[in-house]
Amino acid sequence: MTPPFPAAAERYEAFRARVWGRSTSHVASRSESRFALNETRQNIELDLQAQWFGGEFGKVFTGTDGEKIEIVQFGHWNRGAGPDFTESAVRIDGELRRGSIEIDLDVRSWETHGHGSNRNFNDVVLHVFKDRPALNRYFTCSEEHRNIPQLLLPQFTGLEGPPDFLPEARPGRCIAPLAEMDDHEVGELLDCAAQYRLRLKSERLSVMMNATDPDQAMFQAIAEALGFRMNKTAMAILAQRCPVSKLLKLSPAEREARLFGAAGFLDHAGLESINEDDSKTYLRELWDRWWVMRDDVQLEPSRAIPWCFHGSRPLNHPQRRVAALATVTNQWEQLRKIWVQHVNNFEKDVNNSFNNPPATYWNHHYTLSSAASENPMKLIGKDRQRDILGNVILPGIVGLGDDRENSAWVSYTQLRGAAMNQKLRRAGLRLFGAEKDRRKLFTSYYHQQQGLLQIYHDFCLEDASNCENCPFPEQLSQWRSRPV
After folding, report:
1. Do 259 and 251 meet the contact criterion of CB atoms below 8 Å apart?
2. pTM confidence score
3. Taking 90 as the threshold, does the pLDDT of residue 313 lie above it?
4. 208 plus 90 within the same structural domain
5. Which pLDDT band, with edges at 50, 70 and 90, does 160 fall under?
6. N or C: which end of the chain has fewer CB within 10 A?
7. Could you tell me the residue range of the domain that residue 111 belongs to?
């Protein structure tokens, strides 16, 4: 029987530490795996900026010269040219400094991007970066030759999601030792890994809530869940560009226009090229509301949100994801009660929040310019509702640290499994090989799927030896010999 939260998470964490503590240098580079996706450097930098602004790194740090740095106000994400975040407030060794914050992947980007000779960067009070040369020290200086404090972000905070590269889809060496374990032992392993994964997600949300705002942290996390893997960062950026506190002050129609406009999907010139009457009418209504507010929201081209339009089902087109976020905003107060108050049935309450929405343009359209579909389509289906509950709301409740931790864990274990995706299929093949019955048995529930993904993340994705030198298979005997 799996112990209550968080004892099982601690058992898995200790096992994970033992496995890698005995391993050699066959660990895949997280940064290399991200670059293997053929992403542009600009998009990777934008991802880092979104993590920073969302509070994922926290708000208290130690600078490169040992100074104590506290972010009092993250500021405003710049829409135009100049530093990334303006009107920020930073306390450095007790002294409050107001100005801008610039974020780069590498400390040397300050000079290669020309910031040091650009007077628009003279008010920067903090230069944040993810990497620097190992041997030479690079200083950050303004056009006025003023020294600017530097902050090197940790290479791995424990809050990042797993890298998106996927190892070869073939059975792994762990099949044999797992086959020797009975169903109870394997189930317990997955339970503990799932609890550890739940704890990691709750810690990420807790840090974001403390660094920014609880409602905004949950809003961003829900936006990420709506974006799926390919548009997770894009949706996070949109949620940051359109904070829920500001959206709630608008009417539902204005919220929709602001979200679509900030996303970069409203183009007045494109109105004339649309032949479908419903699409033209809907787009014109959005535009008529957007042009009134666009001066306060619209981004210059270099800061456009990087949407991915290929490789996903038509139902998951980015424009439908933005429409789904508008629906979430309209249901915000009802959703918020689920993690703020004590409820008896989390899943029922989440489903009720999205059931029977008013008829909209998106019931019958894939995009802003598409012809109408004959059959109605849901913006937020059952699997997406389950992901919002399992990946955001229940971790958020655990992150609040009150007496609902165990009830959240119990509800988590009762969720039925989501539809199988590519990563789950690869993970199942790696761990269970051709044993289809076992793969089905251990992916029937949502927490089992999450536990499987955590093991896949911790070992398959971290191993760079093509499975040959991964320490996980040999160390499974240590798991069995140390019962709770």
Report:
1. no
2. 0.84
3. no
4. no
5. very low
6. N
7. 60-152
